[in-house]
Write a structure and sequence with these properties.
Jelly Rolls; 11 strands; mainly beta; 4-stranded antiparallel beta sheet
């Protein structure tokens, strides 16, 4: 899916890591939401409350998921899931454009 129709966009950005990561919330008619964001090159650690699907739209990164010891390379066009109530590490090698979907279980 390259676009979202019939959504509400929250104008105020979510800003993390001194502005190196930003996102905007997209809310759908059914109340579900996603965030669309940009990560500057750098190392970050994020916590989750809900299960997340991270789609890397463009850019290159490496991820370390909960319970794993090996970093994985993820490129634009690929995605990964993160369990609820956990955390993951991500190294943005280049500027990373992403979409994060929150999955209620």
């Amino acid at each position: 899916m390259t676009e979202f129709n019939n959504v509400t966009v929250t104008k105020a950005a979510n800003v993390y890591f001194d502005g190196k990561v930003t996102s905007r919330k997209i809310t759908f008619a059914d109340g579900s939401f996603k965030t669309l964001g940009i990560m500057a090159a750098g190392d970050y650690k994020f916590g989750t409350e809900e299960k997340e699907l991270m789609e890397i739209i463009a850019g290159d990164c490496e991820i370390l998921l909960p319970g794993e010891t090996q970093w994985r390379t993820i490129k634009g066009g690929e995605s990964f899931e993160v369990p609820a109530n956990s955390s993951f590490e991500i190294k943005a090698i280049t500027l990373v454009d992403y979409c994060c979907s929150y999955i209620a279980e």
